[in-house]
Design a protein that fits this description.
Length: 391
């Protein structure tokens, strides 16, 4: 066989191979949500323990919205909207100690703190009222450092909105990833322009070193004037929202939940990719729309009817596990008793799925354990629930 004939044959093989890859990718994207879920592994989450169940004789009671972080030893750091402090529990749910208390001094909190467990189990907290980061030692949780970040909250003259700290997304080698939200003043702002969520990198001194690592429209809001000097504003029901999370290998995952389309990128932006999977939209019923509109002044109901979404968001929660999989809680119809979670990998495939009670919101997934929050069926009290994951 001649050299040119061999090259032509190899070129044909390569062309066919690439065509098959493209066809496979297209088929994956064209696959319906139902079909992709049917092909996924079904996971079983078995409750290991719960915290805050008064009916079971638990003496630990929570009073508000809960958030949970976990270190490498399986210890739980639980924040409760009702208190300014952090409860630490063992990997079996036993109360170990309290970190911080209400106050303005070092190691104290003016507000319920945001918690992030970083490298070597160092505990980092953000007090959004005090605009202050605090670092705690990983073993006895004594205070190591306090960092003032109040100078990073600014009035943006371009958008004419106040930019305030909203959450601590993660800690990287050269600083802190802090999420900021906009709050617009109606008399000064273009109320039709979206409010933005911005991820900034702060250095170890609490100064901004990169001011727009990620920026996108935040929660969907509605604004309407009810008179010459009065207006109504609030969060749009069934509106879309922004999600940002940091993976264990310091990749940022972010997107809005109008579709399952999540961007992944390194902090410096050198690595970029997208993760897309199909989803079946859940419609918003006319009764749901009318119920919300009926709470508004009569003279703006017609105006706002057109902005109420006709479908629910694609997903309601995003959690990254330590295997670089994205856990998404899919939206469900009103009154549903269960919610489906799907696990999406970087190859844009629904790798696994599971069903949990609709009251359960997973917060952390690591190893073979998932930790979430829930509501007690009898008392309506908030709970922390730990699950063991099996296939």
């Amino acid at each position: 066989m001649s050299y040119f004939a061999a090259c032509s044959k190899n070129l044909l093989r390569c062309t066919l191979f690439v065509s098959l890859l493209v066809l496979g990718a297209c088929q994956q994207q064209d696959m319906s949500s139902e079909a992709s879920i049917a092909r996924a592994t079904e996971l079983t989450l078995t409750e290991a323990f719960r915290i805050g169940d008064e009916m079971a004789g638990d003496t630990i009671l929570f009073g508000g919205d809960l958030e949970v972080a976990v270190n490498s030893r399986g210890q739980l750091f639980v924040t409760d909207e009702a208190i300014a402090g952090i409860r630490v529990f063992s990997d079996t749910g036993a109360l170990m100690q309290m970190i911080g208390r209400a106050g303005e001094g070092p190691g104290e909190f003016e507000n319920t703190p945001m918690v992030h467990v970083g490298a070597k189990d160092t505990v980092y907290t953000l007090d959004t009222i005090a605009a202050r980061l605090t670092v705690f030692e990983p073993n006895n949780f004594s205070i190591v450092e306090t960092i003032d970040i109040s100078g990073t909250e600014i009035f943006d003259t371009e958008s004419r909105a106040y930019q305030f700290t909203q959450n601590l997304i993660g800690v990287v080698w050269d600083g802190f990833l802090v999420r900021y939200e906009e709050d617009k003043t109606p008399q000064l702002s273009d109320m039709d322009a979206p409010e933005l969520t911005t991820l900034k990198l702060l250095n170890r001194k609490g100064e901004v070193s990169a001011d727009t690592i990620v920026q996108m429209p935040s929660r969907d809001m509605f604004h309407a004037r009810t008179g010459a000097r009065s207006y109504v504003a609030g969060r749009l029901p069934f509106g879309r929202d922004a999600f940002i999370a940091l993976s264990p290998d310091n990749l940022l995952y972010y997107g809005r939940n109008d579709a399952i389309e999540i961007q992944a990128r390194s902090i410096d932006g050198d690595t970029r990719r997208s993760v897309r999977v199909p989803h079946d939209p859940v419609p918003v019923t006319e009764d749901e729309r009318n119920s919300w509109l009926s709470e508004l002044p009569d003279n703006v109901q017609h105006e706002l009817r057109s902005v109420v979404p006709k479908t629910r968001p694609a997903y309601e929660a995003l959690v990254l596990d330590d295997s670089e999989r994205i856990w998404l809680r899919l939206s469900a119809p009103e009154g549903a008793l269960e919610a489906r979670w799907i696990l999406v990998n970087l190859e844009e495939r629904v790798q696994a799925t599971t069903i949990l009670p609709s009251t359960v919101w997973l917060k952390v997934v690591a190893g073979n354990r998932a930790i979430g929050t829930s509501i007690d069926d009898e008392q309506g009290a908030p709970l922390v629930v730990a699950y063991e994951i099996t296939q």
